[in-house]
Write a structure and sequence with these properties.
The complex is a heterodimer. By secondary structure, chain A is of the alpha+beta class. Chain A has 13 helices and 15 strands. In chain B, about 35% of the residues are buried. Classes of the chains: A alpha+beta, B mainly beta.
């Protein structure tokens, strides 16, 4: 007690213990200073992101297309264990809430991600967990269906990112201006995608065949630089009338996938992969986004020919469920590439009817 | 999450041009679309 009293009354002793009056002041402000600096840094990063997004939005309004530009954040994302993070998120969101708490949680979610709660088929209190709420069904009649027999309808709710016809060698889809990926790499190299070898195409079009010298040059380059897999896709072109459509689902959207037409699913492929975010920013900064991410591909035939639907998972939404194959589990600890022929498995009803009451599958948290 | 749809659309047999597709998208990039709404249409050949 006497020591503390001395310390309080004698400024010299106090200074000798604290290492001088300046240091004492420094220690007092050390923690708030660090907190302030961190907050300032986070604020600056957020402001910069908002500024960038606004610039992108302004450019889009002017009709200027944003080009592919990888950044440090994209490289940093490659280091994160996004699959494990998604599994933890899936586990956390499958925890059941007390009934009184459910409406508050789901309303907060809906406010954050602009979901329309009036469309939900059940009262909010009946969804036991956020995971269950995320794949909620809709009230009857909330999605009018276009029954025109000469129309292909959307299988999901979302924003159209790309549409077009597959043309040219390699059949590529543009991820963003300046970067494209081949459809074969998305659907699988052994997909049934109707392609014509370039030689056959020339014969079909009645074009003159290349001279022997040109042929030799082509084979030299292809042998030297290309792997057999690349060579296969590089020499083939899609048949006439092959189209694609890329639809992005925001977190607040209805997350069930329906059948766009009446079709027979022949093969299901599961590609175990990364779980990068799939938002607009990610599409213009991360290379091969759709080809690298976890996905399930359904391939089959409809009355007009080939049809494939690829459901690509994203961060925290890597659990893709299929009604025609309930045992399928995605984003598991072990990575795998797995093909399942749905034709051979008699227990499966591989025929997906156009927009019937039952959906084909769903994206879920996890 | 994202869905990529790849499909073969109806074609018309044209003696002059060979096979010709008459499928047209009724949506464009940036459009919001909902389940059951038309993506594209074609005319009966």
């Amino acid at each position: 007690t006497s020591f503390l009293r001395k310390l309080q009354t004698n400024p010299q002793v106090r200074a000798s213990f604290s290492g001088g009056s300046n240091n004492s002041q420094g220690n007092t402000f050390l923690l708030p200073g660090a907190t302030f600096a961190t907050l300032l840094m986070l604020g600056a990063l957020h402001a910069r992101r908002m500024y960038d997004d606004r610039k992108v939005e302004e450019a889009r309004e002017k009709g200027i297309e944003i080009e592919f530009k990888p950044d440090a954040k994209a490289s940093f994302l490659r280091l994160l264990p996004l699959r494990s993070i998604s599994r933890i998120w899936g586990f956390m969101t499958s925890v059941e809430y007390p009934v009184w708490m459910r409406p508050y949680v789901y309303k907060a979610w809906a406010r954050a991600f602009h979901s329309n709660l009036e469309e939900a088929a059940l009262p909010l209190g009946e969804y036991a967990s956020l995971r269950e709420f995320f794949v909620r069904t809709l009230k009857q009649g909330s999605r009018p269906i276009d029954h025109d027999p000469h129309c292909l309808v959307s299988p999901v709710d979302g924003i159209v990112l790309r549409v077009g016809e597959l043309k040219g060698v390699g059949a590529k889809i543009e991820q963003v201006k300046g970067f494209s990926y081949s459809v074969s790499s998305l659907l699988g190299s052994s997909s049934f995608l109707p392609m014509i070898e370039e030689g056959d195409m020339h014969e079909q079009c009645g074009e003159q065949e290349s001279t022997p010298t040109e042929k030799t040059k082509k084979s030299w380059w292809s042998i030297s630089l290309a792997s057999p897999r690349v060579r296969d896709t590089a020499t083939a072109r899609p048949v006439k009338g092959l189209y694609y459509c890329v639809i992005y689902l925001k977190p607040g959207n209805y997350h069930r996938i329906h059948s766009p037409v009446d079709w027979n699913v022949l093969v299901r492929r599961h590609f175990s992969g990364r779980l990068f975010p799939l938002n607009e920013r990610a599409t213009r900064t991360i290379r091969n986004l759709y080809v690298e991410n976890e996905r399930v591909v359904l391939e089959g035939m409809w009355q007009e020919g080939y049809l494939a639907m690829a459901a690509v998972g994203a961060t925290n939404i890597g659990s893709i469920e299929l009604v025609i194959e309930p045992e399928l589990r995605t984003n598991r600890q072990e990575r795998s590439y797995y093909i399942q022929s749905l034709q051979k498995k008699e227990s499966m009803n591989s025929r997906c009817r156009f927009f019937e009451k039952y959906h084909v599958g769903a994206f879920n948290m996890g | 999450s994202t869905v990529v749809l790849v499909f073969q659309a109806p074609t018309i047999k044209s003696p002059k041009r060979g096979d010709n597709s008459n499928f047209r998208f009724c949506i464009k990039r940036g459009d919001k679309i909902r389940v059951g709404e038309g993506l594209g249409r074609w005319q009966e050949s």
